[in-house]
Amino acid sequence: MECLTSAALERAWEAEGRERATAHRIVELAEAGDAVAVGVCASFARRLGRLIGMVGALTLTEEVVVAGERTDLAALLEDQVMVGVSAVRRPSAQPLDVTVREHDRVEWARGAAVLALRERVAGRL
Asked: What is the pTM of this model?
């Protein structure tokens, strides 16, 4: 079940009885203060935070970098991300340093190209 995807955000929006909208538009509405959009996005941000908290506990990392297509939401509601992190972390655990990086499609495409080239050079592609 997908819960941290743009499609999941869009379904949650429609479940609130709102007209179909893209995830990007829902985040824009949250930025503008639409109460339903803020609520839907805050729920998404808390789920993201719980995932970050669980991964941090599993890997014992001290820093997590959030990057990808919904970083706009994570940046907007960073406090809710941290609520999610706190929900799954022991109070005595070392705090996680969570950094949100703006999504850059060019950087993402460059990384994908590098991985493809690496596979080609290694003779696996």
From this structure: 0.80
